[in-house]
Amino acid sequence: MIARRVVVHGLVQGVGFRWSMAGAARRAGVAGWVRNRSDGAVEAHLEGDPEAVELVVAWAHEGPRHASVTHVEVSDAQPFGAVVFDIEP
Description:
Blueprint: E1 2-11, H1 17-28, E2 31-36, E3 42-48, H2 50-60, E4 68-76, E5 85-87
Parallel strand pairs: 2-5
Antiparallel strand pairs: 1-3, 1-4, 2-3
């Protein structure tokens, strides 16, 4: 079990990024959450099997069709025992 904090910059709000990331995470079996930040970025906490988490991290570099990702920050995080993937407001 690993956890990653991911902050995605670019045109990532208002394009379905959170919903698409939730779908990618759920398909991969990754738990955690995703939310919009006030600075225009999208932030996520991902935890689960290392290969599954890295799959979702790789997805975040592209995002959904209408997104334009310019930069992704990835850092280690502490797992907190998430069992589902939530979309936060």
